[in-house]
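Project standup — Tuesday

K.O.: blocked on the structure for the chain from last sprint. Re-posting the sequence here as requested.
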Amino acid sequence: MKYPQALEDLIECFTNLPSVGKKTAERYALYVLMHMDDASITDFSNALISIKKDIHICNNCGNISEGDTCSICKDEKRNKRQILVVENVKDLFTIEKINEYQGIYHVLNGAISFSKGIGIDDLNINSLIEKVKNNMVDEIILATNATLEGETTARYIKELLQEYSVKITRIAHGLPVGGDLSYADEMTVLKAFEGRREY
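H.V.: unblocked you, prediction finished:
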């Protein structure tokens, strides 16, 4: 026996979300049907419509914004000559939460992954190269993830920028505070060694 079509359609919509399988989507859809009142459902659907209508991509860095330029790029106190390169918007917000970095960002919208069909042309790299070419940058900080894809992307960007007189740095990756060495994987231990400094 199948659910009514409207419910099947909602289940299908939920399965499009990352990490949501058929059973979880079914649970979400039934919750909406049985436990959310009309006002809550209207608010939920309006919020979905609003993010597509009212949120834009910053012309300068690739961050999300309510206008053409994000609040970080508009901030005159920010060091516009220091750019931190991240894979996605979530990474940007993670770094912003520590309230230490005072430069601007560049969002790649992914990392090179040939197994997933994500190539160089799928990433937001060209505008970063143009900024460096036009001598608008003193330092590029590569903050891609410590994964095979993140490392591949960081190395590729570094190679592209080798011919320009710009400082290229990479954030340190390694053992977390309070972490146990015996539980760390090889990549984490390797990055901890590479990021070591004088004590």
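K.O.: great, moving the ticket to review. The chain has a mean pLDDT of 91. The radius of gyration is 21 Å.
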